Fold this sequence. Notes:
The chain is α/β, with parallel strands linked by helices. It has eleven helices and twelve strands.
Amino acid sequence: xxxxxxxxxxxxxxxxxxxxxxxxxxxxxxxxxxxxxxxxxxxxxxxxxxxxxxxxxxxxxxxxxxxxxxxxxxxxxxxxxxxxxxxxxxxxxxxxxxxxxxxxxxxxxxxxxxxxxxxxxxxxxxxxxxxxxxxxxxxxxxxxxxxxxxxxxxxxxxxxxxxxxxxxxxxxxxxxxxxxxxxxxxxxxxxxxxxxxxxxxxxxxxxxxxxxxxxxxxxxxxxxxxxxxxxxxxxxxxxxxxxxxxxxxxxxxxxxxxxxxxxxxxxxxxxxxxxxxxxxxxxxxxxxxxxxxxxxxxxxxxxxxxxxxxxxxxxxxxxxxxxxxxxxxxxxxxxxxxxxxxxxxxxxxxxxxxxxxxxxxxxxxxxxxx
Length: 370
Ligand SMILES: *Cc1c(COP(=O)(O)O)cnc(C)c1O
């Protein structure tokens, strides 16, 4: 079966992990710091604007705390979004308010957010679908005008750019994922960016029991290093040197991964452009670059096509099943594009693990379908 997502890990990662074993320090240490510096450089931000975290989901939960969102507040979220994002809103006692997205890009836009703003709106959690940046200009302007916090779920778009700046660094908070299905893989792991450096301090404390100072070895200040203080009931959502060892190696390879993904994207788009029963994703505007997380096609034969491809050993999926259709979060909504998308969209494999033979096979099977 050709997978829809797949990690690309090799001897470099394995060797790096072996070194961690030899170092006798498995926890959060020097390698996590090195990974953090390296990714900050890659994203063109100062190190003290970012911090690693156990998952993107943990980052989304933290973003609510850091921005002071809670009961009585509303947070706007496109219904086409990851389940962890809405869970974060509900868990802090705020109310999710669903908005629509564009029919072809699956990204939300300022007009859809605007419709849903009330006196209670505190934040919006956007998603750069499949790696393609949203039209951020309009969204940022609206958020400024209405004093709404902007949270970017950057899990699909780790190195995407908009007008030359990395996505995830435009809003008040941005969150990345390095779970085993993403472009950069460390098993589990994530990153949080905060516009306000003080919020990174909050994140560090939230992720480590609420401690005010470093503990154990790392504490070089206090005479009695077993003493400590906290100023909040923090939890523990850090990553380890084992994960960072993998991440450091993955960062060296990521540009190559993304180039390969772009090649596959462009090949699909040119091969599929004359198929009358199928729509390819729209061409991106020149001020954007993508991390090519997903390739989505749209057709009224979506369900049959998915079944046909699966029978031919090609696994496909649809991301993201509308949140307002999930029983626990169910809500009666009029989201026309979301409904169209949910019934007509299919994501096909685009990862760097695909061989040329796989790509040709996928193209052939899609063309043969009708
Ligand atoms: C993968 C993903 C997440 C969750 O990331 P974890 O690190 O697994 O918590 C969140 N949002 C989007 C859009 C994702 O694709």
